[in-house]
Amino acid sequence: MSLSDRKPNQKLIDVPLQESRSRAIPWTFLYTFPWWALILILFGIWIAISIAANEVYSNIFRQLQEGISMTLTVAGVSYVIAVFIGLLVGIIRSNPPKPRYGLVGKVISVFHIIIYNLATLFVMIMRGLPILIVLLIFAFVILPALKDYMELNYGIIITFRGSSAESAIIALAIAYGAFLSETFRAGIQSIQKGQIEAARSLGMNYFQTMRYVILPQAIRRVLPPLGNDFIAMIKDSSLVAILGIRDITQIAKISSGSSFRYLETYVTVALIYLLMTIIGSLVVRFLERQLAFEY
After folding, report:
1. Tell me, what's the pLDDT at 285?
2. What is the DSSP string of 4-20?
3. What architecture is the 65-286 domain classified under in CATH?
4. 175 contacts 158 by C-beta, under 8 angstroms
5. What is the rounded CA–CA span in Å between residue 57 and residue 267?
6. Which of 88, 149, 187, 190 could form a disulfide with 218 if both were Cys (CB 3.0 to 4.6 A apart)?
7. pLDDT tens digits for range 109-125
8. CA–CA separation, 277 vs 272, rounded Å?
9. What's the gap between Cα 265 and its chain centre?
10. Closest Cα partner for 270 from 79, 47, 36, 76?
11. Is 177 exposed, middle or buried (0-12, 13-18, 19+ CB in 10 A)?
12. How far apart are the C-alpha atoms of 145 and 133, rounded to whole Å?
């Protein structure tokens, strides 16, 4: 029955019915209230008061401030680079090679096969290795070999070391680029083929179709997993401490080792990471609401 078919007094009957249902289930808010958020807020208030009132917590927090900026820098820059790598590899893997006719078509097909298989090999290797191993291999194997090769053959000197923030950023970006590529590939392949055919019938080439039709929709669809990967990037950035980079984890390790204040130090570190991930999650949810649309 449509809204226009309702009787005039039916709308008046619906309101008491809804009120009676709400009265029949008392304390409904107890089931819907976000108690987890209240617990986190109370825990954060307790730590904030402890930091402000306790000299031990205050000293620990001041020592960790340098690490906060380093952690955010490594995570943010690595993620931006990983998005570009993932988008490029995802576009390549979303379009499997197909046979083409003619000399030019065969040459393009061979090139497409090579690029597609290289991209697939990259994804399989990076997704099969722990991120910590990727960091170590890049910092102490690949980068030294690359520095020697560039200096001997081209006279180019790479100044940063394997145990530097630049090295960690590149390694994290490469590792996460493989994960993000699968997210982008799934989003691109979720677009109906009819839209691609309609765009091609309007005279758009492949690049125009991807830019104006496919990617705007695919990015909106994969925004939640992209946000989750950014949260994971913030947490995984703690792995750079093994390279001696002065992020939150490395400073906390040095500080607790010299003062033996393990409880206070790592509780503060846990709170800092927790606040960063919660704020990141809220930002992602805000972007989801802003870009929400009906499929």
Report:
1. 80
2. GGS-TTHHHHHHHHHHH
3. Orthogonal Bundle (1.10)
4. no
5. 10
6. 187
7. 899 999 999 999 999 99
8. 9
9. 27
10. 47
11. buried
12. 17
